[in-house]
Amino acid sequence: MHLRMIAAALCLVVPLIAQDREPVTEPKLLSHFPIGGQQGTTFEVEISGAALQGAHAVWFEGGELSGSILKLEKLQDAYKEDEKKPEDYLGKAVKADHQVVLQAQIPQTASLGLHLFRLVTPRGLSNALGLQVVSEPIISETARPHQTAEEAQYLSVPAVVNGRLSEKGQRDFYAFRVPQGEELLFSVRSDLGPSRTYQAQAGITLYRSSASWFDPNRVVRLAVDDPALSWEPFHRYERTRSTGRFSLFQHVSHRFESPGRYFLSVGTFTGAGDPAHGYQLRIVRRRSAEPQPVLGKLAHPDQGDWLERDSATLRQLGSFQRPLEPNRLAILHRRSGKAPPIGKLSASAESASTEGHSSSLSPAHAFRLDPVPEAEPNNSLDRADTVKIPGLIEGRIQNPGDIDLFRFQAEAGQKLAFEIETPGVSPPHFNPWLKLLDAGGNELVSNIYMEYGGDGDDVNKTVERKTIVTIEQAGSYTLQIRDLTSVQGGERFRYRLLARPQVPHLGRVEISLGVTPSLSTLIDKTDRINLEAGQAKEMVVVCEKEEGFEGNVVLTVDNLPPGVQAWVSTAAGWTETLMRGIQYRPLGVEVVSPRHHRPQRSATTLVLWASPDAPITGNPSFLHLKARPVVDGRVGPAVPAGKIPFLALGPAEKTQVMTSRR
């Protein structure tokens, strides 16, 4: 049965409030080992968790992998009376009370990347953990101690290793050989176990031998080519497990100018260790300057994740590597409520659009944009490249301090948008700084956004992926792009710059099932819906209206099972926190006007209700949320807005009986 429910998104502006921290009552997975396997293999995975009584099945969200539960064991008291218990992301003591042994089967044709899986219990569906699939053969770390370079375990490149950081301060050493000029890509992913802070993420350190008569086993740290800090977007499932996403030396590439034997160690920045802290280390040869697959990328990303801007305070945490395809304008028109034109434009229409005399939703703007390479030298106003609006520019910061300039003509009142993609390296390595200059070289706007943070006396600055502006006077204008630091540059410092008319459209859609503030972010309390017969659960949907979109947003929930309905509701209790974001913002005070960098945000609360006689589904499934823009009474095409794992349960008293019998 499919039920479609319609709701108009309503704009809210409300203050930040704290959330009650309710005890976790749903099945919860804490850790698993090993955390990955090779294509075409079958192996056992040990899983620890809480409230896993009666677990009887495993569900891989992508549908490619399969598995079965071999053993379910109830654990004795995991912690001694005098030991400090670890804390979860809500600040409450967490304790594994069950261990599950799972047999996982990875087909030879399985997609590379992270495959999310959950356990099915009488109490409902658990949270998700990820099983990493790689193409290279996997070995286990040696059982003998290898916490020094002298004891290092030898690896033959390429190599993938499953290991554990089981003790505090532990570092595992590995040795390998390389020929002269070899460039290797190192990647590590860890399962943090009960520890949830980003400081516990595993990282890589490289060493070279520096033997001497006094110490023949001496090694010194090797300066790597890449910066230490990794900054990557959250996946939705991670928001229930971690309070941060920064980590040190998770992905490192390095060219070895001298042949010989080298070493690496795997450890955590703070020296954290735990018997449940597993990791997977991967070493491969870099074949090109293009981005290489690394551990931790989802094999089946949610098609509803539309990443347009970059704002940590509003939980976007996106990436400058999101692609700006040649059909970008056509995609935006689809999200505007008006279908993009099909076929090649006429000569007159193409001429009108490229001259940039209109900022309306004319079909002439929705044609394919072929990338135009920059023409060096273009580092001064008198040498600026001439471009047209709309235009997709491909350039590169060739060396430290390189500045690229592009000149275009604009009319008074013209509404423009500038988007940046960095397909090679992205922040914090390459921080593209964009400025819009007038004919006299004066800055009108940049892609740097500032806002208050912390306790209200701090100013946070972010480099944004999109900047919008309205031209006040007709004339010649210049776009300037450079690296923010002026000390970076090279082959991988490539960018795509899309200069286009604004297209009012539906932007990002965020689904929340409950949040709580934690440190400098908002943590989702759950990532799935376990709905008992006769019960109801809330869901908040936040829609962002981009570039002056003034229409309504229609929300539909598809794939609802029999007996389950979706209704519009008054605002859920955590709506204010979700809308406000995490940073402190004094009312009525803005460091920089948000009009260039922030969309209008609106929220709708939906309630899912299962009738008392709703049948038990037994098998989990996805509820698909879709959004349709409505403009001038016309309903646009459906846009994927996210999916939610769902399991229908029997009444609570029946569930307890089933659990006790198991």
What do these coordinates show?
- The protein is mainly β.
- The protein folds into four domains: 10-20 and 506-661, Immunoglobulin-like (Sandwich); 28-134, Sandwich (Immunoglobulin-like); 140-285, Sandwich (Jelly Rolls); 328-502, Jelly Rolls (Sandwich).
- It is 5% helix and 42% strand.
- The protein has four helices and 45 strands.
- Strands 1, 35, 39, 41 and 42 form a five-stranded antiparallel β-sheet that branches. Strands 3, 5, 8, 9 and 10 form a five-stranded mixed β-sheet that branches.
- Strand 30 and strand 31 form a beta hairpin.
- The protein is flat, with a radius of gyration of 27 Å.
- It starts with 9 loop residues before the first strand and ends with a helix.
- Mean pLDDT is 82; it is low at 1-24, 78-91, 340-366 and 657-662.
Rg calculated over all Cα atoms: 27 Å
Tally of DSSP helical segments? 4
* Main beta sheet strand tally, sense and closure: 5 strands, antiparallel
Shape, please? flat
Alpha-carbon distance between the two ends? 31 Å
Briefly note the CATH topology name of the largest domain: Jelly Rolls
Unreliably modeled segments = 1-24, 78-91, 340-366, 657-662
Helical content class? under 10%
CATH-level-2 architecture of the largest domain: Sandwich
Q: Taking all residues together, what is the mean pLDDT?
A: 82
Number of strands: 45
Give the C-level CATH assignment of the largest domain: Mainly Beta
Per DSSP, what share of the residues sits in E-state strands of 2 or more residues?
A: 35-45%
Helix- and strand-based class? mainly beta
What's the number of structural domains? 4
